[in-house]
Design goal:
136 residues, single chain
């Protein structure tokens, strides 16, 4: 059940990012079907990677039962799946907040929060920002 919940959270975060990104682009008058298509495919890949990590977690748990080492393999599967889930969820949260900050540029606290989250996430968003600037 925990893997289904993780997957549903990632799907919700990806959908929220797509919607807030569309609202931001609409408000700025720069809707681009190419960016939406690339963004949508990126979100689909995130969902697939999360599902694969959940599958790996379930598979490792079953393998542990087979080799009579359930605790070790369950831990390895859970850590792997949660790591992927945490990274993707953090990335999506930052993206949603960036979209919201672009919609409401007067909110200074929001910009500070985004800055702190980017520090936690490391370079997760830098590559996406680089790719976005290439497309313009």
């Amino acid at each position: 059940m925990k893997y289904i919940i993780m997957l549903l959270i990632v799907i919700g975060a990806a959908f929220t990012d797509l919607i807030t990104g569309f609202i931001k682009a609409y408000g700025q008058g720069c809707i681009s079907s190419r960016k939406m298509r690339i963004g949508g495919l990126g979100k689909l890949c995130e969902i697939i990677v999360t599902a694969a990590a959940a599958g790996l977690g379930i598979g490792l748990e079953r393998l542990g039962d087979y080799y009579d080492s359930p605790l070790l393999t369950e831990l390895a599967g859970s850590v792997t799946a949660f790591g992927v889930f945490f990274y993707i969820t953090l990335m999506e949260t930052i993206s949603v907040l960036e979209n919201f900050a672009a919609i409401r540029p007067e909110d200074k606290r929001l910009k500070r929060l985004i800055k702190h989250l980017k520090l936690i996430g490391g370079n997760a968003r830098q590559e996406n920002e680089y790719n976005d600037s290439e497309e313009e």
